[in-house]
Request: fold
Amino acid sequence: MSIPISRRDLIAATAISYQRILGANNRIQMGFIGVGNRGDQVHDGFLEHGDSVTTAVCDLRDDYMDFAVKKSRATPTKFKDYHKLLASKDVDAVAIATPDHWHALMMIDACNAGKDVYVEKPLSLTVWEGRKMVEAAERTKRVTQVGIHRRSGKFLKEAVDFVQGGGLGKVTVAKGFHVQNEWPNGLGKAPDGPPPSEAEWDQWLGPAPKVPYNRNRTYYNFRWFYNYSGGQITNFGVHYMDMMRWLLGKESPRAVTAMGGTYAIHDGREIPDTCEVLWDFDDVLMVFSQYNANGATPTGKPAEMEIRGTKGTMYLNGTSWEVVPEKYTETLFGARTPLDRVTEKSYNPSKKATIQPKLVKGSADTAFHARNFLDCVKSRAKCNCDILTGHISTSNTLIANIALKTKSHLQWDGKAEKFTNNEAANKWLQYKYRAPYKLG
Reply:
């Protein structure tokens, strides 16, 4: 049935930013804050779409901005100060792909400036920051997308439907693996020294504590220092945590514990090269394993995640998922003696529900996630990985780091967002920003 013109007009009028954003050419004017490394990949994802035009870029490095300008259809304005980008009337929405410790400040400032926001994962450096980001998005009614891009992979949505439809039976364990051998050099050892530019170093640190310049702390390598990142537990782990939550319909764990350390690489990093995290979700255990090694994951499959159910096991990565049915044997416990088996006459494998092997291939390219964001900017609908979804998944990985740092088994209240059995651990849920920085 067609929608009456009057109702169309009402819908358009209700979406306050809609007409401003569409403009005469139906294109969304995008500003990109942080355009190196992952920021470049995010930029590419938006460039896939004809209704996205890059009008502004911001970075501390001129070479990164020059590279972004060259590949843009328009000639975007370059900014060193993100506040000036946010003040531009030529920017409707922003994509933030800076180091983690800058996400909260920039995202909240963008919301306050009336911009819709695509912000890379992990969403925040602390749980407290993430909650403030959620509140800012709700208060300003901004459209938000967190860069956990698997949420926009249609074939992964099929995996979710399969698991939630009972395809694997009762799932009791879900695991994610990050396997990467950094031995022997790792980051290498670099001495502290004078920065190429004192002003740039101070701006890069932002709200983080002032420390002597060391090239290992900057750009991609920031991921190995707690002042700027949560390491691979939040970097790759948030992808796995979010996917496992999505598959199983879970939110926050009731408890978390972790062990690990720098067992193989001694290059001045703070983030472990080896660790194991366990989250207790009442009726299912979720696990993240980081191994300093090469080769396949312990699954023996080319998979990053393993979901084990009573009927079968699912193996997933960014391009495929496979189901391997459980094999039922004649007896429940093959090691028992023949006399023991007499008591198992009621057991009949043929009565067990079986499933068929399954292999599904697809893509979770960043471009699909960018497409969903652009569509939602126009419609004002909720994105596939809105700010609250991203906050919950990120918080689950952040509290894992706290368990690792405090060497604790921590009981977690997901509603109150605090630990209930270790008051000292709650001090790690936020940190004091370096003056004059503060969340707006």
About this structure: The chain is about 30% helix and 20% strand. Residues 1-24 have pLDDT under 50 and may be disordered. The domain at 154-362+396-417 is CATH 3.30.360.10 (Dihydrodipicolinate Reductase; domain 2).
